[in-house]
Amino acid sequence: MRVRKGEAWPRCQTSWCRYELWRDGRLVQAELEPFTLQIWDLDEFDDLLQEAGLTTVAVHADYKVGQSPTAGTGVWTFEATNRAGR
């Protein structure tokens, strides 16, 4: 796995999710829960898949099969198989 010089590792982004329970139009309970995402670049994630014994078949952009990711891509979908082909 590659880590770029000067970057903190791990790169994470944490958001807070708020859950509310309402009864008869009144808030009766609320909870906060952290939601943390690990941030990877394409090559790092491909390396992780290979280290786990998978072979990357394709990376698709924004849920469009066959479309390659670019700098403006919002979502990457990795299609991978294990080395035995299953």
Show the helix and strand layout.
Elements: E1 12-23, E2 26-38, H1 42-51, E3 54-61, E4 76-82
Antiparallel strand pairs: 1-2, 3-4
Computed structural class = mainly beta
Biggest β-sheet: count, sense, barrel? 2 strands, antiparallel
- Strand line-up of the largest beta sheet: 1-2
- Taking pLDDT < 50 over at least 5 consecutive residues as the criterion, the unreliable ranges are none
How many beta-strand elements?
4
Shape: elongated
- Taking the alpha carbons of the first and last residues, their distance comes to 24 Å
Mean pLDDT across residues? 86
Number of helices: 1
* C-alpha-based Rg, rounded: 19 Å
Helix content: 10-25%
Order of helices and strands: EEHEE
Keywords:
86 residues, mainly beta, two-stranded antiparallel sheet, two-stranded antiparallel ribbon
Q: Your description of this structure?
A:
The structure is a single chain. The protein has about 90 residues and is mainly β. It is built from one helix and four strands. The strands form two sheets. The protein has a two-stranded antiparallel ribbon with strand order 1-2. Strands 3-4 form a two-stranded antiparallel sheet.
